[in-house]
Amino acid sequence: MAAETSTEVPKTARQFVLKEEVIVERKWLKLEETTYTDPFGKTRTWETVKRTGNRKGVSADGVAVIAVLQRTLHYDCIVLVKQFRPPINSYCLEFPAGLIEENETAESAALRELEEETGYKGEVVECTPALCLDPGLSNSTTHIVSVTINGDEAANTRPKQKLEYVEVISLPKNDLLQRIDELVAEERIAVDARVYTYALALKRAAEKPLQVPFMKF
User: Fold this and answer.
1) What phi and psi values does residue 163 have, to the nearest 5 degrees?
2) Which of 22, 70, 102, 109 has its CA 20 to 30 A from that of 125?
């Protein structure tokens, strides 16, 4: 008689962190060894990167700003920034972004960072909940804040940015993905995943829905 093979799937346990130990800490970041349980109750370790400091009254580490520049007789543009990022040894195209200061709201931080990096003054349209950035590496979180900029206002006709090492790049919203691809090919720069995902979503949203042929039965 043939032996019966069990088809039962082992029940998994709820996972949780047991302890966190600092391996090395510097001014802005620290590396920790995180001990946790896997789905089957076995103890495992993970190397985790975290920010140092303990800012009070913040809902996330930082903000990223999707800023739409609106001007009369012009296409709407997405305001982006290009800056050098030492970890990747390259310039990177990104949304204006930065850390939330102590007891500062995400909306206030977004408007502050937008003005500092681009010189533009905007108005918040919406703000996401706190979102994970790279949960396999870090516990870092951010809010994505949508902002509109009235380009016809005097303060926005000749914006003065406060950060000289950041280059402001405005690209047409209706052709964002193609313009990003062209910029990457021309300048060999990197692109933040959030920017490229947003551009790809805009392109897909503008496409006609897939037409499913009518089937007769």
Assistant:
1) -110, 110
2) 102
157, two tokens = 């006709």
Return the number of other C-beta atoms located less than 10 Å from residue 189's C-beta: 17
State how far the Cα of 14 lies from the Cα of 37, in Å rounded to an integer: 8
- What predicted TM-score, i.e. pTM, was given to this entire model? 0.89
The position carrying tokens 């950041």 is 166
Q: With contact defined as beta carbons under 8 Å apart, do 25 and 50 qualify?
A: no
Q: Which amino acid is at 153?
A: E
CA distance 123 to 149: 6
Report yes or no: 206 and 117 within 8 Å, Cβ to Cβ: no
* Half-sphere exposure at residue 128, Cβ-oriented, CA atoms within 13 angstroms: 15
- Burial zone of 52 (CB within 10 Å; 0-12 exposed, 13-18 middle, 19+ buried): exposed
Identify the CA nearest to 90 among candidates 200, 184, 181, 163. 184
